[in-house]
Design goal:
The structure holds 2 protein chains of 2 kinds. Chain A is of the alpha/beta class. Helix content of chain A is about 20%, strand content about 20%. Chain A contains 4 helices and 7 strands, in the order H-H-E-E-H-E-H-E-E-E-E. In chain A, helix 1 crosses helix 3. Helices cover about 65% and strands about 0% of the residues of chain B. Chain B contains 9 helices and no strands. The longest helix of chain B has 26 residues. Chain B is globular and about 50 Å long. The chains are: A alpha/beta, B mainly alpha. Chains A and B meet through loops of A and helix 2, helix 5 and helix 6 of B.
């Protein structure tokens, strides 16, 4: 283990920027940094890097693809030994998606998540209750939208329909 | 790590049961919803079983008697209402259980803190369907009640203390009963009477004693891996 207190070296900052720029395999408009899943990067020796990644959902199948992509870009940058570790704590929250990430999601046709009521922690009290607050249609901008299903094409999205333009759309649901 | 095995098996077995709905759910949205819930559970199972040993070996190469899941999760799907009754009983339990584990400082706390947020959606899904079916047509009401009644006797086992878990079991049981009662009554249904378990059911799954349908489920789940050891996609 590397001391977490040490501030990143210029090399670590450069490598972290590279790893953070890797696109999400399922939502390629977002980078891993914008999704907020890149937790840490430490150079542990010459050509040796350890990366900490947190999954969005426990069963998210994209984690393996993310790890492979990170390993590839860091190897291309001359790092011979790249280890990607999955960390669970603190649990990822949709609050970890950056403002730029939210903007890109909306542009891509996915309604971004709203801030969670519990500030990301625990989730025991809040849960999925406040979903009926306005969620804007990413196509026409109307706030008159209804929930079709809390589960959509991937675990992290809910399926909604806009009552104004009648188009269905995905909503990145709060977690 | 018997606790991780017990909770991992709960998640794995229920995940497989929910996966059996693929291609059979009443509407496409439900097909996707059940598959999503199954995927969450599978992710939890992988994390938990990996604490115990090799996840594939544990899932595919153990005999029935070595599984430590509660009998509730291995019960066949039945009709959609039956599956929702199973989901209601289990997801309310799992939500409370993970909530307690997340608050405690144990080895399972990181997973529980993450999974509790996923399970909140499962619990809400089961609640919404219980309300809709219970307070729906005469037919849906009858089927939902039948599901609740049929699975009630597997509920006592949920509160059998699992060794090594920092859980207040009586509080878990009280919380579960209060929440389930509230949902069932709002759905204009009746909380089943009678014992929530029998001499042969209470705690038996945690000791490796399973009901007859479980063997058939395992045969299907393990068939590919056992027939083609080491096969990969």
């Amino acid at each position: 283990m590397v001391s977490a207190a040490a501030s990143p070296t210029p090399l670590e900052e450069e490598l972290r920027a590279l790893a953070g720029a890797v696109p999400d395999p399922e939502l390629p408009v977002l980078t891993l940094a914008e999704l907020g899943v890149l937790r840490g990067l430490h150079v542990t020796g010459p050509g040796r890097v350890e990366v900490e990644l947190t999954p969005t959902y426990t069963g998210c199948p994209a984690v393996e693809a993310m790890s492979a992509d990170i390993e590839r870009v860091l190897r291309d940058r001359g790092q011979r030994e790249v280890t990607v570790r999955t960390v669970l704590s603190p649990a990822w929250s949709t609050d970890d998606i950056t403002a730029e990430g939210r903007r890109k999601l909306a542009e891509f046709g996915i309604a971004p998540p709203r801030p969670t009521s519990e500030g990301g922690g625990g989730g025991v009290k809040g849960g999925p209750v406040m979903v009926d607050l306005a969620i804007r249609c990413p196509h026409c901008g109307s706030t008159d939208t209804t929930l079709l299903s809390r589960f959509s094409s991937t675990a992290c999205k809910a399926l909604r329909r806009c009552e104004a333009c009648r188009e269905p759309f995905d909503h990145f649901k709060e977690l | 790590m018997t606790a991780a095995l017990a909770l991992g098996d709960d998640a794995l077995v229920l995940s497989h049961r929910l996966g059996e709905w693929a291609g059979h759910a009443p509407v496409l949205e439900e097909e996707v919803a059940l598959a999503n819930i199954a995927l969450d559970l599978l992710g939890q199972a992988r994390t938990l079983l990996s604490l115990v040993g090799d996840e594939d070996e544990l899932a595919y190469l153990r005999e029935e008697r070595a599984f430590r899941n509660v009998q509730l999760v291995e019960q066949p799907n039945g009709d959609f209402a039956h599956t929702m009754a199973r989901q209601l009983y289990f997801s309310v339990y799992q939500h409370l259980l993970y909530g307690q584990l997340a608050a405690a400082d144990g080895r399972l706390a990181p997973l529980a803190a993450k999974a509790v947020k996923e399970v909140a959606y499962h619990r809400d899904h089961a609640e919404q369907w219980t309300l809709r079916l219970g307070d729906g047509t005469e037919e849906s009401h009858a089927r939902m009640q039948r599901g609740l009644d049929a699975l009630w006797r597997f509920t006592d086992e949920l509160f059998e203390p699992v060794e090594g878990l920092p859980v207040d079991w009586p509080a878990l049981r009280d919380g579960w009963l209060a929440q389930v009662t509230d949902i069932v009554e709002r759905a204009t249904l009746t909380l089943p009477g009678g014992p929530g378990g029998g001499a042969w059911t209470a705690g038996a799954g945690r000791q490796g004693i399973h009901t007859e349908p479980f063997g058939r489920m395992l045969a299907e789940m393990q068939h590919l891996h056992r027939s083609h050891p080491g096969a990969t996609w």
